[in-house]
Write a structure and sequence with these properties.
The radius of gyration is 14 Å and the shape is globular. Strands 1-2-3-5-4 form a 5-stranded antiparallel beta sheet, covered by helices on one side. It is built from 3 helices and 5 strands. The longest helix has 17 residues. By secondary structure, the protein is α+β, with helices and mostly antiparallel strands. The mean pLDDT is 94. Helix content is 24%, strand content 20%. A hairpin with a 3-residue loop joins strand 1 and strand 2.
């Protein structure tokens, strides 16, 4: 399968320094920054620096170094923000993919949300 990456998406522009952000953490392969429209007291986006559209794209094509860096960056952001289970009461990690997943930006990103009870993500069937 081929993934079409749009290098004009907002996260690509942030990575190129064309759009400012409030950086929480930057590593060799990842960037974490505050969401402009936070949905919880903690709302941080974590993106890989590589051109990946979704998590399945990233998992199948990223290098070992990128995968390890991204995963550890997410853990470090949770610690820094005080929402990791070792430091707080937990968090929600969300990654949307494609139209059914309501993905707004075609660049892999996860939302780390926490700092308050978040309720159920989907109603029980």
């Amino acid at each position: 399968m081929s993934y079409a990456y749009d290098d004009q998406n907002i996260f690509a522009k942030i990575l190129r320094g064309e759009i400012p952000n409030t950086t929480v953490l930057e590593t060799d392969h990842s960037l974490a920054f505050r969401d402009l429209y936070p949905q919880a007291p903690t709302h941080v986006l974590v993106i890989p620096k590589g051109a990946y559209v979704s998590y399945d794209h990233f998992a199948s094509e990223a290098s070992e170094a990128e995968i390890v860096d991204y995963t550890r960056a997410i853990a470090e952001v949770c610690q820094l923000e005080g929402v990791a289970l070792t430091a707080g009461d937990g968090f929600r990690l969300i990654s949307n993919a494609g139209s059914n997943g309501v993905q707004d930006v075609p660049h892999l990103h996860v939302h780390i949300l926490g700092g308050r009870p978040l309720g159920r993500m989907l109603a029980k069937a």
